Amino acid sequence: MVLTRAEQRAATRRALLAEGRRRFAEDGYHDVVFAEVAHAVGVTKGAAYHHFDSKAGLFRAVVAEVQQELGERVAATADRQDDLWERLRAGCRAFLAAGADPAVRRILLVDAPTVLGWQEWRAMDDAASVRHLVDALADLVDAGVVAEQPVEPLARLLSGALNEAALWLAETPGRDALAQTEQALDRLLAGLHVSR
């Protein structure tokens, strides 16, 4: 089957993203060489530059892809719950569990804030996942499950706690770490629940 030029370009872009993602997750941003990514997928460095203007451009695209996937995974897990409170708990737990994924840990939590800068990383995080948390908390406030309060700062507080906990989990050996973190999360969230 012969691919059109547009299909070839799309396939090359996907291959560069996949190889970049693998290397950024394994080696970290600073140890990845853009030309080696291009060579690994069988294209010239010039062809790689056609798709991404630099290693930073490739990294930015990888971060966006990983963030989007993580946001969708967390939202899908949460949406399987009918109860609003359980939806919040399930989404938070899914985020914590995702920290075991090297792409999430290394790319999103360790390298992205440094490489992209805090403001750009926060803007991307807001678009991909914090908005789900804001929506979930707003629904809980509207339903009277969580006391009336400003939702935006509450979402930022919870998001920061989840990010730190996910980093801690990724660096903490032992099977009990996730269970302990989920237990601490439940205690933290219980403080928000009006009937608890």
How would you describe this structure to a colleague?
By secondary structure, this protein is mostly helical. It has two domains: 1-52, Homeodomain-like (Arc Repressor Mutant, subunit A, Orthogonal Bundle), CATH 1.10.10.60; 63-190, Orthogonal Bundle (Tetracycline Repressor, domain 2), CATH 1.10.357. Helices cover 78% and strands 0% of the residues. It is built from nine helices and no strands. The longest helix has 25 residues, at 55-79.
Provide a quick synopsis of the model.
By secondary structure, the chain is mainly alpha-helical.
CATH topology of the largest domain, anyone?
Tetracycline Repressor, domain 2
Shape from CA axes?
Answer: elongated
In the residues, how many domains can be counted? 2
E-strand count? 0
Task: Give the name of the CATH superfamily of the largest domain.
Answer: Tetracycline Repressor, domain 2
CATH architecture of the largest domain: Orthogonal Bundle
Uncertain regions spanning at least 5 consecutive residues: none
Please write the string of helix (H) and strand (E) elements. HHHHHHHHH
Organism: Streptomyces hainanensis
DNA-binding region: 33-52
GO molecular function: DNA-binding transcription factor activity; transcription cis-regulatory region binding
Pfam family, one: TetR_N
